[in-house]
């Protein structure tokens, strides 16, 4: 099935956006939401006027405005008056205490604040990891299941040893980086690339005249990186756990570049990664990144959303550029967000 070439957005309240204007026509909005499908790899697809489109959702694609229960059957109301059933067993809870779940047509949803308040009022009881209704208790797990293996060097080195071309390795710099760097006209500066892999992004910065430190936990990844780019004098490779960086990294960099590292670590440690960015950036430094924006709770790569990233960055970073990337390689089309922000 070919990927469409047109895009439509869903805003954080669950309404469709066309050219940054909210879709008001209920029939058009209903078509968008009713025809949502998750394509292979997590790309959201739908139609507008029977035209296939890629859907870019700011949060979950369905935002529940109201919650109802009748004769033990749970349902939620979406924008444009749509209703879908859901099962309590599908619910999970994120670190902001928001309930997520799946509708009967397997589309992810999240409760709005109003819907969540209604939900609590309909329950018999609830706690940090359960809800009870009609005398039955339902476990509510964390949205992100933890996998401690991804924190180990052996996990990543084994992939580099057994896979000729790991899924995250494009064999070249990120498309968004190649496109945006000439536009941003960043003067030569000290750049840190965490989770550098085979070094393609780091080398791109170095070739543009920046002084680059590239870090990875896997010695096999760095062996390949040095083989590819070890002759570039202003590019240094460092083997280290990104959560245990040496103290001389503190405030030592003008720019941190993120690409397929945020999605590779345990999501429970994402806020710790933000603290690392804060720690290594000099005052007034910049965070630049290509982030995945699709629903994938098992990883790596783990998915993410613009809503989540905004929550993590809003107290420490001012956006300079923040936009979905619509010129990616086919398997990533509709699933990338490019940001360029300044540390507050």
Secondary structure layout plus pairing:
Elements lengths: L6 E4 L5 E3 L2 E2 L3 H9 L2 E2 L5 E5 L2 E7 L4 E3 L1 E5 L2 E5 L5 E4 L5 E2 L5 E4 L5 E4 L1 H10 L2 E2 L3 E4 L2 E4 L13 H10 L12 H10 L5 E5 L5 H8 L3 E6 L2 H11 L5 E5 L13 E7 L10 H11 E12 L13 H8 L3 E9 L10 E8 L1
Parallel strand pairs: 1-6, 7-13, 17-18, 17-20, 18-19, 20-21
Antiparallel strand pairs: 1-2, 2-3, 4-5, 5-6, 8-9, 9-10, 11-12, 12-13, 14-15, 15-16, 21-23, 22-23
Describe this structure in words.
The chain is of the alpha/beta class. Helix content is 22%, strand content 33%. It has eight helices and 23 strands. The strands form five sheets. Strands 19-18-17-20-21-23-22 form a seven-stranded mixed beta sheet. Strands 3-2-1-6-5-4 form a six-stranded mixed beta sheet, with helices on one face. A four-stranded mixed beta sheet has the order 7-13-12-11. A hairpin with a 5-residue loop joins strand 12 and strand 13 (108-111).
CATH superfamily of the largest domain: Vaccinia Virus protein VP39
What is the global morphology?
globular
Taken together, the total number of domains comes to 3
- Low-pLDDT stretches: none
Supply the CATH architecture of the largest domain: 3-Layer(aba) Sandwich
The computed structural class is alpha/beta
Total helical elements? 8
Strand segment count: 23
| CATH top level assignment of the largest domain | Alpha Beta
- Going across the major beta sheet, what is the strand order? 19-18-17-20-21-23-22
Distance between the termini: 44 Å
Q: Helical proportion?
A: 10-25%
Whole-number mean pLDDT: 95
What would you report as the Rg, rounded to the nearest angstrom?
Answer: 22 Å
| Percent of sequence in beta strands | 25-35%
């Amino acid at each position: 099935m070919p990927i469409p070439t047109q895009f439509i957005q869903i805003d954080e309240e669950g309404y469709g956006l066309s050219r940054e204007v909210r879709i008001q026509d209920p029939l058009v909005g209903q078509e968008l939401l009713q025809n949502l499908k998750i394509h292979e790899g997590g790309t959201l697809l739908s139609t507008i006027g029977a035209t296939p489109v890629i859907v870019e959702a700011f949060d979950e694609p369905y935002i529940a405005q109201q919650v109802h229960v009748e004769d033990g059957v749970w349902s939620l109301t979406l924008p444009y008056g749509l209703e879908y059933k859901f099962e309590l067993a599908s619910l999970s809870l994120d670190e902001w205490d928001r309930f997520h779940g799946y509708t009967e047509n397997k589309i992810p949803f999240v409760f709005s604040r109003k819907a969540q308040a209604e939900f609590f009022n309909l329950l018999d009881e609830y706690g940090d990891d359960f809800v009870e209704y009609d005398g039955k208790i339902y476990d509510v797990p964390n949205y992100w299941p933890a996998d401690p293996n991804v924190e180990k060097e052996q996990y990543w080195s084994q992939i580099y040893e057994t896979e000729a071309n790991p899924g995250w390795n494009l064999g070249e710099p990120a498309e968004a980086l190649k496109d945006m760097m000439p536009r941003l006209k960043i003067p030569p500066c000290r750049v840190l690339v965490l989770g550098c892999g085979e070094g393609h992004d780091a080398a791109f910065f170095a070739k543009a005249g920046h002084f680059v430190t590239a870090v990875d936990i896997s010695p096999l990844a760095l062996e390949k990186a040095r083989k590819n780019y070890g002759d570039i004098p202003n590019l240094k490779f460092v083997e280290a756990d990104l959560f245990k960086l040496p103290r001389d990294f503190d405030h030592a960099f003008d720019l941190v570049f993120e690409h397929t590292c945020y999605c590779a670590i345990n999501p429970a440690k994402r806020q710790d990664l933000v603290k690392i960015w804060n720690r290594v950036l000099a005052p007034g430094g910049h965070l630049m990144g290509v982030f995945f924006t699709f629903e994938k709770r098992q990883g790596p790569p783990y998915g993410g959303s613009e809503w989540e990233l905004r929550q993590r960055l809003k107290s420490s970073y001012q956006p300079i550029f923040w936009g979905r990337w619509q010129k990616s390689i086919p398997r990533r089309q509709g699933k990338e967000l490019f940001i360029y922000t300044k540390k507050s």
